[in-house]
Amino acid sequence: MADSEYFVHPKAICDSSNIGTGTRIWAFSNIQERAVIGADCNICDHCFVEHDVTIGDRVTVKNGVSLWTGVTIEDDVFIGPNAVFTNDIKPRSKVFHDQPDRTLIRLGATIGANAVIIAGHTVGRFAFIGAGAVLTKDAPDFTLWLGNPARIAGYVCACAERLDGDAVERGDVVTCSCGRKYRLENKVVIKLPDGG
Known about the structure:
single chain; 196 residues; mainly beta; UDP N-Acetylglucosamine Acyltransferase, domain 1; 9-stranded mixed sheet; 5-stranded parallel sheet
């Protein structure tokens, strides 16, 4: 892909040629050779993206975030400043494992500032991990997680508004102020089709 299709700040290092159109990589960031970054992303100052990380389209990675091998970010994800991702749940100095522990951040999820995502977990579609939370388990779709260790604290719409948790847990159809509708089915929050 031609350099003119994306922007790399002169004080950034970008060794990958797998960068999507319209993406911006800002100062003092380091993108390693086999990293893949989609279109229209914003990789802010002082970020590190290691070999074999995959980032989808329209992802925002705020200042001071390191993404290590084993992390996959789907489209439309927001990662707040200084969020921390791990990729080894049994780290020791100079001990290298054959495979990193895998972490998946699904479509539209939000990772708040200074949140910690422990390796080996999935953050579901449009889930919201609050600032400073330490996530030690999978976060299902449309759930809100707060605290250390993070615990489910409610439910959120794709627009990021908080849903009526009591109504969700009763199994009611819950309508967000934006008009989207949700219901709990088999312990999983699902977005109903438009008009549903």
